[in-house]
Amino acid sequence: MDAAEVEFLAEKELVTIIPNFSLDKIYLIGGDLGPFNPGLPVDVPLWLAVNLKQRQKCRVLPPAWMDVEKLEQLRDHERKEETFTPVPSPYYMELTKLLLNHASDNIPKADAIRTLIKDLWDTRMAKLRVSADSFVQQQEAHAKLDNLTLMEINTSGAFLTQALNHMYKLRTNLLQPAESAQSQDF
Amino acid sequence: MPATQKPVRYGHTEGHTDVCFDDSGSCIVTCGSDGDVRIWEDLDDDDPKSINVGEKAYSCALKNGKLVTAVSNNTVQVHTFPEGVPDGILTRFTTNANHVIFNGDGTKIAAGSSDFLVKIVDVVDCSQQKTFRGHDAPVLSLSFDPKDIFLASASCDGSVRVWHIPDQTCAISWPLLQKCNDVVNAKSICRLAWQPKSGKLLAIPVEKSVKLYRRETWSNQFDLSDSFISQEKNVTMLKTGLLKEEEEDDQAGSSHNLPLVTSQRPFYDGPMPTPRQKPFQSGSTPLHLTHRFMVWNSIGIIRCYNDEQDNAIDVEFHDTSIHHATHLSNSLNYTVADLSHEAILLASESTDELASKLHCLHFSSWDSSKEWMVDMPQHEDIEAICLGQGWAAAATSALLLRLFSIGGVQKEIFSLPGPVVSMAGHGEQLLIVFHRGRIFSQFYNLTSTPCYVDSEGCVRMLNRAFGNTWTPVCNTREHCKGKSDHYWVVGIHEHPQQLRCIPCKGSRFPPTLPRPAVAILSFKLPYCQIATEKGQMEEQFWRSVIFHNHLDYLAKNGYEYLSCKLEREFRCVELAELMTQHAVNLAVKYASRSRKLILAQKLSELAVEKASELAATQAEEEEVEEEDFRKKLSAGYSNAATEWDQPRLRNQTEEDTESRKEADDTQKTPELHEHGQNSGSTDTFDVPAIKSGAVTSSNQGRINPFKVSASSKEPAMSVNSTRSTNILDTMNKSSKKSTAFNRATNNEKSPVIKPLIPKPKSKQASAASFFQKRPCQVEKTEEVKEENPKNASSEAPVLCPQNVENQRPKTGFQMWLEENRSNILSDNPDFSEEADIIKEGMIRFRALSTEERKAWTNKAK
């Protein structure tokens, strides 16, 4: 799975918007949306929110966790803990990215939030690398990783498994060099 | 005056502060470690006047227009008040002074400093100084005896001394306080106080109590203490309040825990008449804010900026399709505004040169001049304004209410019985709140029913059915999380029962930036036992009764449901007796579904009874049939309106709407006519019809509202015994046959239709094919076909766009007929001849009112 696919999944997340048009309920395969009343908040999937925002048909209300104070707390907590801490949303990175790219004018202190989310992400990625490193070095058979989001798993998952595969091959070769050497002699 | 404590607010940066009142008590003067002296109109004043007096201000005193401050350059300075112009230096110390005070007549000041000295200086002639030496540590506070003989001082050395001023000697010294080495380390700044006027007692705060000493003898008279006071720190803050309070009434023994704010209480102690509430505009924030909302209603927002760089008004519409956002400069100082989907109304107060003005931006006007302005007569100020549909109103200080048309024509004028508080308009209705006895605090009306919000956050709505009383429908305070949080109500909508408001954290009004978001609260009547299902159902029932008379009918279903659930079958029958025929039918169905057979039986007996009564009243069949048509519409309505109801019930309604013929009581009819008016679309029947279709499709899949579903008809027939006499029963089969036949002929005749129709052909299609046989084909066929796309727009996929090409019908009747053809057909499925349909249509069309007929004729043109 590549990042675009993960982002596609994240676009199903509901966000609150304030539309500036009125429209009756719309019936989609994924469920009913609306009704849209101008000035009244309504929950819509992210893809629709971004689309409406691009057409200047709505204002986006940032999710409750997208707040400088809360994120600072989260970041500090993340830095203090050895393990991964729970994140506010399973798609926090994708949500932040999309909302800040398309609706930064509706999000107070957008720049600070961008930095904080990046900090949070970097901290978590560093932890992931460190744990992968110790996992490899200590030649563990399994490890438990909680509170990882799909995007985070996706960044290192494919590479790590492949790398482990390779290492496995190399190690098995090291253990029986003689046999393989013999076979080559023939 | 109740001892209520207002929320604390910050006046200065962190550090030592001091506070005093001016002579008249009209403003609060504070100084702080930021070196500013601030003059506050009241505690809510957001724009205090600041005078910079130095780097740090330690203490301030105010008397006779002189402001004395002790500042960090070790001087005691004078400034004029309220201008704040420096007026010389009174005295200097080697370090900073900690406390300065005036004596009773304002001729002298006393200052105590950290260099252990106390000085008394004449304000006019600063060369006349008296110095008191004796303290061994920084002086904390001072107090002048009202008779100017003694001066009390407290110091960090733990002693409280009383000085005899003329002799410059120490009269007495008590070691009362805890010793410390500096003012910043003192646990209490120990403000002292003499009994006002007589000076008989001296009060000294010591730890958690107040010690009172008698003058001359200097003996401890008594102590005041209270278990409420737990911290010493607290005590110092409360001291002045305590002392003044005690000494005013000269009562010993009782102690009142008063906050600092009330320290200078007025001498009148009885209940005060509440000041008359000023007029206000619904959905606006207070005038004194520099950035404020002038209006926030269901149409849009008007913001007003009033700061140094900008004096402007921003208008923004929730729905950008009404009008684009506009920006106006506010050169005339408009203070009140209102907004409707037709116009923006602004009004200003009169100034010396300019009269009070009413300004209207009528943006929906179709001509080029979009604004008008009216000057009020001299000495007449506009106090409240409001907009309705096609009119504007302004209430003035001359107790007049002036009505204008939206185009600016002056209309009625009448006088009000009292000063206006607020006004609200909706459609053709105007609601005025004026002073008589009770004082309302806030008022909003955004629906056809008046409602208001009081300052306690309780929303009340007028209950027209119950002798025009006010019923509380929601308490916004219940939803608040914090104590100082409020909800600022911007609108009430009955249709989906909503209270739209803006949550404000720690304040009453929202700031303009960042832009606040609207929250939606649901209504809740304060009924008992709301936790039980019975309580909930009762609450729901009465709420719906209040919210709309036309919900009555569904509400009864709700009640029926309630009693079924409660397994009180007898009560259900009682209820059913109150119901209309139609509701009874629903009840029967519901009962049989929920396997309450006895109940169902009882109810159907009742239904038969009612129906037989009705049969007598059915004089003219045609008339009833027309009613039936309207009922259909209104049924669609009530469905749309009652989302709170059980979906199951709604389904039933749908089925019943379709299966129902003419077995309804006449009593319902007037009510139904009302609905048409409420909707404001009496003459455009297709609108509600489409709406009902939308609801249907959400519940039952996509079904044509015009379609007569034979399947749903049959079970209904079996329940309703009266219908067995109906000819429709027997006609069912034959009509179906003819349908099939017609379809066949239709296909032969016009092959264009065929490919577009998917397999599950709706009845609509077959109904349309009824007309294919008629002789005068060209024109009429087109009419029929035009109807189909119309329906198709409401529930697209089912209906096939079988129109060949559209040709406008020529007369109003033809248009009407085209709209209502399916109704006629559904009512009389045996009409296979076009002539019959037209005949029936003629009869119905004649029964319409002249106005409606005119409307149709106009449409045709």
TrEMBL record, chain A:
<comment type="subunit">
    <text>Component of the GINS complex which is a heterotetramer of GINS1, GINS2, GINS3 and GINS4. Forms a stable subcomplex with GINS3. GINS complex interacts with DNA primase in vitro. Component of the CMG helicase complex, a hexameric ring of related MCM2-7 subunits stabilized by CDC45 and the tetrameric GINS complex.</text>
</comment>
<feature type="domain" description="GINS subunit">
    <location>
        <begin position="65"/>
        <end position="169"/>
    </location>
</feature>
<dbReference type="Pfam" id="PF25005">
    <property type="entry name" value="PSF2_N"/>
</dbReference>
<dbReference type="GO" id="GO:0000727">
    <property type="term" value="P:double-strand break repair via break-induced replication"/>
</dbReference>
<keyword id="KW-0235">DNA replication</keyword>
<feature type="domain" description="DNA replication complex GINS protein PSF2 N-terminal">
    <location>
        <begin position="3"/>
        <end position="60"/>
    </location>
</feature>
<keyword id="KW-0539">Nucleus</keyword>
<dbReference type="InterPro" id="IPR056784">
    <property type="entry name" value="PSF2_N"/>
</dbReference>
<dbReference type="InterPro" id="IPR036224">
    <property type="entry name" value="GINS_bundle-like_dom_sf"/>
</dbReference>
<dbReference type="GO" id="GO:0006260">
    <property type="term" value="P:DNA replication"/>
</dbReference>
<dbReference type="GO" id="GO:0071162">
    <property type="term" value="C:CMG complex"/>
</dbReference>
<protein>
    <recommendedName>
        <fullName>DNA replication complex GINS protein PSF2</fullName>
    </recommendedName>
</protein>
<comment type="function">
    <text>Required for correct functioning of the GINS complex, a complex that plays an essential role in the initiation of DNA replication, and progression of DNA replication forks. GINS complex is a core component of CDC45-MCM-GINS (CMG) helicase, the molecular machine that unwinds template DNA during replication, and around which the replisome is built.</text>
</comment>
<keyword id="KW-0158">Chromosome</keyword>
<dbReference type="GO" id="GO:0000811">
    <property type="term" value="C:GINS complex"/>
</dbReference>
<dbReference type="InterPro" id="IPR021151">
    <property type="entry name" value="GINS_A"/>
</dbReference>
<dbReference type="InterPro" id="IPR007257">
    <property type="entry name" value="GINS_Psf2"/>
</dbReference>
<comment type="similarity">
    <text>Belongs to the GINS2/PSF2 family.</text>
</comment>
<dbReference type="Pfam" id="PF05916">
    <property type="entry name" value="Sld5"/>
</dbReference>
TrEMBL record, chain B:
<feature type="repeat" description="WD">
    <location>
        <begin position="132"/>
        <end position="173"/>
    </location>
</feature>
<feature type="DNA-binding region" description="HMG box">
    <location>
        <begin position="806"/>
        <end position="861"/>
    </location>
</feature>
<comment type="subunit">
    <text>Trimer. Interacts with the polymerase alpha catalytic subunit POLA1. Interacts with MCM10. Interacts with DNA2. Interacts with CDC45 and GINS2 subunit of GINS complex; these interactions associate WDHD1 with the CMG helicase complex.</text>
</comment>
<dbReference type="GO" id="GO:0043596">
    <property type="term" value="C:nuclear replication fork"/>
</dbReference>
<dbReference type="InterPro" id="IPR001680">
    <property type="entry name" value="WD40_rpt"/>
</dbReference>
<dbReference type="GO" id="GO:0003677">
    <property type="term" value="F:DNA binding"/>
</dbReference>
<dbReference type="Pfam" id="PF24815">
    <property type="entry name" value="HMG_WDHD1"/>
</dbReference>
<comment type="function">
    <text>Core replisome component that acts as a replication initiation factor. Binds directly to the CMG complex and functions as a hub to recruit additional proteins to the replication fork.</text>
</comment>
<dbReference type="InterPro" id="IPR048591">
    <property type="entry name" value="WDHD1/CFT4_hel"/>
</dbReference>
<keyword id="KW-0238">DNA-binding</keyword>
<feature type="compositionally biased region" description="Basic and acidic residues">
    <location>
        <begin position="776"/>
        <end position="789"/>
    </location>
</feature>
<dbReference type="InterPro" id="IPR055339">
    <property type="entry name" value="HMG-box_WDHD1"/>
</dbReference>
<dbReference type="InterPro" id="IPR022100">
    <property type="entry name" value="WDHD1/CFT4_beta-prop_2nd"/>
</dbReference>
<dbReference type="GO" id="GO:0000278">
    <property type="term" value="P:mitotic cell cycle"/>
</dbReference>
<dbReference type="GO" id="GO:0005654">
    <property type="term" value="C:nucleoplasm"/>
</dbReference>
<keyword id="KW-1017">Isopeptide bond</keyword>
<keyword id="KW-0539">Nucleus</keyword>
<dbReference type="InterPro" id="IPR036322">
    <property type="entry name" value="WD40_repeat_dom_sf"/>
</dbReference>
<keyword id="KW-0677">Repeat</keyword>
<keyword id="KW-0007">Acetylation</keyword>
<dbReference type="Pfam" id="PF24817">
    <property type="entry name" value="WD40_WDHD1_1st"/>
</dbReference>
<dbReference type="Pfam" id="PF12341">
    <property type="entry name" value="Mcl1_mid"/>
</dbReference>
